[in-house]
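ok trying again, last paste got cut off:
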Amino acid sequence: MWVAGVATPVLIAMLLLFVVSPSVKANDQPSAANAAVKIDNFVFGPQTITVPVGATVTWTNVDDIPHTSVSTEGVFKSKVLDTDEKFSYTFTKAGTYPYYCTIHPKMTGKVVVR
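nice, full thing came through this time. structure:
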């Protein structure tokens, strides 16, 4: 009897958690309204980032060398970013947006907006 008396409240609590918890499917992934790209060691990281329409991407230069983040198609253009400086852009249309550093053109990245 004592075990059943303890098990009942635990069972009720577990059922409440199951009923009240939001349903998340295995393939569901949260869509972030904001995303970050870190500039470090002459690399944009991640090199390709996928975000939803309306997302703001923020580039942060953590390198001790100045860098830029400039769209190859003229969509966005940062100023020269010194260490710890940031640049943000909000993507309002779906598409693929390649970019590079104008100071170091071999540094490239891509934002995919869905």
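cool. The domain at 34-113 is CATH 2.60.40.420 (Immunoglobulin-like). Residues 10-31 have pLDDT under 50 and may be disordered.
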